[in-house]
Amino acid sequence: MSLSLDKAFGTQELALRLRGERSQMLASNIANADTPNFKAKDMDFQAAMQAAESRGTGPMQATHEKHFNVSPGGGLDGDPQALYRVPHGPALDGNTVESHVEQAKFAENSVQYQASLTFLGDRITGLLGAIRGE
């Protein structure tokens, strides 16, 4: 009987990767809170997970010169997962970052990232126990 690590770990690896990308987006927003005309970005995590799961295992390839350019992450010319956040009260300099919102989103994403790590760690512990015959 063979063991497929993709099936054994489920979607936790994918969730960790997407949570990491979201952390980078949110950190960028916080770092650019005082940059004129900076537009805050975020991602729809559920939609990103569904899109990543539906992509399958193989990378997309352009088979015709009129096909869209596909980035290594599976997105079209950049990151289609990046969505601009609509601010409650935009700044006069065009910046749409609201520090309190970004910090709350970053903290929430950090907790969810840690939860994914815990789930993955528990899964690895269970597999090790099965391998050892415990």
UniProtKB/TrEMBL annotation:
Keyword Cell wall biogenesis/degradation listed: no
The keyword Iron is annotated on this UniProt entry: no
A Gene Ontology term for the protein's cellular component: bacterial-type flagellum basal body, rod
GO terms (BP aspect): bacterial-type flagellum-dependent swarming motility
Domain Flagellar basal body rod protein N-terminal span(s) in chain numbering: 25-39
Ranges for region Disordered: 51-95
Compartments (UniProt record): Bacterial flagellum basal body
Record's keyword terms, sorted: Bacterial flagellum, Cell projection, Cilium, Flagellum
InterPro entries to which the protein is assigned, alphabetical: Flag_bb_rod_N, FlgB
Protein task: Structural component of flagellum, the bacterial motility apparatus. Part of the rod structure of flagellar basal body.
Family from the record: Belongs to the flagella basal body rod proteins family.
Quaternary organization: The basal body constitutes a major portion of the flagellar organelle and consists of a number of rings mounted on a central rod.
Name of this protein: Flagellar basal body rod protein FlgB
Organism, as annotated: Alkalispirillum mobile
